[in-house]
């Protein structure tokens, strides 16, 4: 298994929770703020977050309703959507992604906020005072997944040794992507990789941006961003036509046709978020709940994509992979 610990655990919180159902003396309501595209209603009710609530003892939709707000990739909408949740009001706001987290913190300093799916250091982003003692009204989970780019690039060179110039797709409207592109540039130096920075601000611009990638580029990577993830299939299709190996931080990209990924599990993060919501609804203050950082990461490879690119995956890589998509 590739799942291993990178760095120290920032919290001693238990990894599993067994708790009775919260007494419904009050009609509690959760707000969910995401910067991506809203999933179908049926998918919301069966989401990893809702499953996390059920694991604790809640009955999603009946004992604790969730108000969902999604920006559809337009981060400029997040402030208004956060304001809607504050005015309802909700008892807790769960945010998905850095832009949503920042919008929520601007909208309220009193309603508890649980952040998840952020790939940057929440301290550097100004979300919390420290991981161990967040302070204020924000706590949650952080992947700090930008620290893994040196390992990701090493895996790419192992699979495709001739790669010399890597195009990196990133969204400058996403605060977390700035650290992503810088981390990639830093990691690339040791491997003598040239980096071509390719900015993608929205889904409409993607097709035009892709066609602008230079012909001497021989690999492509994508940062963690809702706009890029939403069009991951189109990016993978373009890369196959250009015969470019593709690299990403999340399994979800590989499921859409990317070659390989190394990163935290989004589904596990969403389930774990329910733990924080439960604690807060039972009276805990965000300031007293340490922020958890991911220490387990999954390696995922797409054999079908490798074959289409004419690449042979090393047997050791297949053995180490946590998931092999065929």
Features:
326 residues, alpha/beta, Rossmann fold, 2 domains, 6-stranded parallel beta sheet, 13 strands, elongated
Question: Topology, pairings included?
Answer:
Elements: E1 30-34, H1 41-45, H2 48-56, E2 66-70, H3 78-87, E3 92-96, H4 98-107, E4 113-118, E5 138-142, H5 149-159, E6 165-170, H6 175-190, E7 194-199, H7 203-211, E8 219-222, H8 226-230, H9 232-241, E9 246-248, H10 251-255, E10 260-263, H11 266-281, E11 292-293, E12 298-302, H12 303-309, H13 315-320, E13 323-325
Parallel strand pairs: 1-2, 1-3, 3-4, 4-5, 5-11, 6-7, 6-8, 8-9, 9-10, 12-13
Antiparallel strand pairs: 10-12
SSE pattern: EHHEHEHEEHEHEHEHHEHEHEEHHE
Strand order of the biggest β-sheet: 7-6-8-9-10-12-13
What is the CATH C-level name of the largest domain?
Answer: Alpha Beta
Q: Look at the helices and sheets and give the structural class.
A: alpha/beta
- Please, what is the oligomeric state? single chain
- By CATH's scheme, which homologous superfamily of the largest domain applies? Response regulator
Largest sheet: 7 strands, mixed
Radius of gyration: 20 Å
Give the terminus-to-terminus CA distance.
18 Å
Number of helices: 13
Round the mean pLDDT to the nearest integer and report it. Answer: 88
Strand content: 15-25%
Helix content estimate: 25-40%
Shape descriptor: elongated
Which regions are unreliable across 5 or more consecutive residues at pLDDT < 50?
3-25
| CATH architect. name of the largest domain | 3-Layer(aba) Sandwich
Number of strands: 13
- According to CATH, the fold-level topology of the largest domain is Rossmann fold
Total number of domains: 2
